[in-house]
Amino acid sequence: EAGVTQFPSHSVIEKGQTVTLRCDPISGHDNLYWYRRVMGKEIKFLLHFVKESKQDESGMPNNRFLAERTGGTYSTLKVQPAELEDSGVYFCASSQIGRGGFEQFFGPGTRLTVL
Amino acid sequence: KQEVTQIPAALSVPEGENLVLNCSFTDSAIYNLQWFRQDPGKGLTSLLLIQSSQREQTSGRLNASLDKSSGRSTLYIAASQPGDSATYLCAVRVTGNQFYFGTGTSLTVIP
């Protein structure tokens, strides 16, 4: 069974540019989460989808971040325009509703560097 | 607000030694706690998941305990091996599926 995949693995952009990160969850997982780890800090929750609906987006830093999950399959996280403080590793995770106590499976992350 | 602390931040042990990693959280109203392993440049690998009603979970040489009332969890690694070297993270799930992470313990097992 394929795990959670994320694309790209690395992205280097200049301040003011736009970047779109993609996450493909494990097939059949309705829950999809985005997290971020900035240098030296703990991993922090950004938002949670159940299928195509945003269940909790309380962790989104500001309106420069836009997450979508059309069709309830893969998800994208767009940062527009990017700022220096957006640099970090963005993780995606998925879990299956009602199974295994919502055990979350993580992708390898996308390392974003904003110059 | 939930805060998760992991002590120590870094640990170095000789191969074969048993060791304990600690995780504490401030709000005992959790649904579950999950231990992860992260290798350099890689994602998080789930090790053990403990439901709030459970006291411990075991997988191979790993044993995780949970004392919800005191806000503590420990990850016990028996007979450590160089391949166990990684960063170990604990995360607690609270209402609404949100996870709160600790900053991790960086473990080095010396051959």
List the main descriptive attributes of the protein structure presented here.
heterodimer; A: 115 residues; mainly beta; seven-stranded mixed sheet; four-stranded antiparallel sheet; globular; B: 111 residues; six-stranded mixed sheet; five-stranded antiparallel sheet; 11 strands; 0% helix
Brief characterization of the structure:
The complex is a heterodimer of chains A (115) and B (111). Chain A is mostly beta strands and 115 residues long.
Low-confidence parts of chain B, pLDDT < 50 over ≥5 residues? none
Spatial gap, N to C terminus of chain A: 37 Å
How would you classify the quaternary structure?
heterodimer
Strand content of chain A: over 45%
Order of helices and strands of chain A: EEEEEEEEEEE
* Number of H/I helices of chain B: 0
How many β-strand runs of chain B? 11
Q: Globular, elongated, flat, extended or rod-shaped: what is the shape of chain B?
A: globular
What is the gyration radius of chain A calculated from CA atoms?
13 Å
Helical percentage of chain A: under 10%
Sequence stretches where pLDDT stays below 50 over 5 or more residues of chain A = none
| Major sheet description of chain A | 7 strands, mixed
Main interface: chain pair and counts: A-B, 28 and 24 residues
How many strand units of chain A? 11
State the distance separating the first and last CA atoms of chain B: 41 Å
Please bin the fraction of helical residues of chain B. under 10%
